[in-house]
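Model: You mentioned two targets. I'll fold them one after the other.
Researcher: Yes, keep them separate.
Model: Target one:
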Amino acid sequence: MSRTITITNQKGGVGKTTTAHAIATGLNHRGLKTLLVDLDPQSNLTYTMGADGSTPTIYELFNEEIKNPSSVIHHMEHGDLIPGSLLLAGADMEYTKPGREYILNEILEPLKGDYEYIVIDTPPALGILTINALTASNSLIIPMGADIYSLQGLSQLRGLVDNVRKYCNKDLIVEGLLITRYNKRAIISRNLKEVMQETAKQLETKVFDTVIREGIAIKEAQAMQTTIYDNSPNANVTQDYSSLLDELLNKR
């Protein structure tokens, strides 16, 4: 049975796209067929995958200009991708009809038999695109920095998750809060850890045991449009994302 995971946080700079890419390509490396969906108008994930964002994208599927989602999938060296589009930047104003929360779910439904996992990257905002992602997903991962500022705004995300569960997707699970871009020389205070744990409880979830360390291997892989598993298999950050995959898969 296919499982759909959304990676989201309205705060930028927390490694959201990096995490979506690392999880999806890591699952593919383990022989689990995975589809990436770039729902962020910035389309950084599309670039990292080496895809051409000027060809048919998720935007054409949202507007029903193309009705066969399989025809929009790019079969790239490191996995399959539905590319993003800058045209989705106006989604909150463009999609106003009743049922707009279910557009992505309807797009992905016929693809679920072809993939074991679908991983969705979202924009750093809590608008209609993120609502669509959560409505279409089984679970959610929230990347966040190891600082107090990353906790600001999570109450808004919690409110959005509660509303999606109430009105669109009652079975949505928050897999956990993922600390990213961690610098071991920085000290996380006991108070901050306690606040993170309390925030996780409010979201009915946990803080992942795995911490993602900061590492140049990420930037190198992105610049070369490859994966950390191919480019730097022994790097700390690669080991960290592998450990995260172990946590996710061992839970099943």
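Model: Target two:
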Amino acid sequence: MSTTLQTEQRLWQELAARGAVQGECPEHSHAPWAVRCLMGAAGWLGALFFQMFLVGTVFVAARENGVAMAVTGLAMIALAALLYWRGGGIAASQFALAVSLCGQGMAVYGWVEALGFTRVTETAGFWAGIAVFEAALALLVTNRLHRLLSGLGVWIGVAGAVHLALPHGSADDWQALAWSLGWLAPLGCALATGFTLAEARVCAAGRHALLEPLADATLLAALAMALVVTGMSHPMAWLFDPEAGRLSMAHWIAGALLTLVLAGFALTECRRLAAGSAMQAAVLAGTLAFGALMAAAPAVVAGALALALALRRASMAWMGLGVAAIAIGFVWYYSALHWTLLAKSVTLAAAGVLLLAGRYWLLHGRTGKEFA
């Protein structure tokens, strides 16, 4: 008997002892991972042939008719929603996912083609419309993976809208992404933190199935944006282009805001655990010091926050995202050519010493013994 089945039976026996359930534990067969992979591949393969026929037919018949393409895309999304609603196995759900993604692409392409490609895509309103469109799909289509991808689509639309709406005055427009995403990364981390703190109330209200995949997408998008800011920000840009002065502050602003979010979560956890005032002050001071040392690498601060949220939620997926963000953030920060080797070495070494000192104090200090 597998460990999973043993755990299920043990939990069922505990619930039966409390009177919450009756009868025998229902049988639940878990398909091997190889079978699940093959079924998923079969679903994508079937969707590929279906879409090659459908998309090819539509493009040949209406390649210059954007409205027809958009309508076809919406019809494909409706078909995917119907397949999700009827239920089915892994192959059916993957088939529906592939059809929905292709339908979204056709709907957006047809919309752009009908309104004029260059004129539309360079406006903030277009990207805001993408965000609204993906948000509507997240509400209407109940599949968890589909909601996760729709949540990522919402953040892509929001990032495009913010990037075009904020004035940056940079000749290299792609470099201004660090300025735009430097505001969105802390916002995403703050939303993920708010979900973590309110998760119990969300479950009680029956909205966990809706909000959890959106929270996953929010954290993933926030970590990705923090990594972009860490790698693209150039602290000496103002020397070469006076108009790029605020762009060179993107990583400092993002790092400072992420530090505030991390410190707020740490303080909230201390109060939830009924820690004393001395402990709260020490944790807050250590968190602010760590954030100040790593402010030039916002991805590291965001990864530390993701780790803290993962421990709070007991989520292995969030823990993996946090570890990956910290590792990639460290490598990207240390390999950046626009920082001196001395500055990078000092900040990384100081942050490591600070964390080791904090661990030693928590384990061997008087206050640490109270929580042992």
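Researcher: Noted. Anything on target two?
Model: Residues 180-372 form one domain.
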